């Protein structure tokens, strides 16, 4: 399987696993949260230039916080 940097493909893989491996929910949440957290951190460190970068920063951090909250409440 090829490694991809496309977040849409990453999300689609997690949806695929959701159908066939429901007991892996916490692992999927951790992996997705880590992905969006690192992406948000990258936007912070690079000093966002435009409105698109700021939108990506806000959405990445908000998705990370939502997944973190879910992860913490299910542990």
Set out the fold topology.
Blueprint: H1 7-20, H2 25-46, H3 51-74
Helix pairs in contact: 2-3
Structure description:
This protein has 75 residues and is mainly α. The chain has a domain at 32-75. The protein is 80% helix and 0% strand. It contains 3 helices and no strands. The termini are far apart.
Catalogue the unreliable spans.
none
Number of helices: 3
Report the oligomer.
single chain
Largest sheet: none
End-to-end separation in angstroms reads: 31 Å
- The rough form would be described as elongated
* Helix percentage range: over 70%
How does the helix and strand content classify structurally? mainly alpha
| Rg over CA atoms | 14 Å
Strand content: under 5%
Mean pLDDT: 77
Order of helices and strands: HHH
Number of strands: 0
Task: Give the structure's gist in a few sentences.
The chain is mainly alpha-helical and 75 residues long. It is built from 3 helices and no strands.
Top keywords for this entry?
75 residues; 3 helices; mainly alpha
């Amino acid at each position: 399987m090829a490694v991809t940097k496309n977040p849409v493909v990453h999300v689609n893989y997690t949806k695929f696993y959701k159908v066939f491996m429901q007991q892996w929910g916490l692992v999927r949440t951790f992996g997705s949260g880590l992905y969006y957290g690192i992406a948000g951190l990258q936007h912070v460190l690079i000093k966002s230039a435009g409105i698109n970068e700021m939108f990506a920063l806000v959405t990445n951090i908000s998705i990370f916080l939502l997944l973190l909250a879910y992860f913490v409440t299910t542990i």
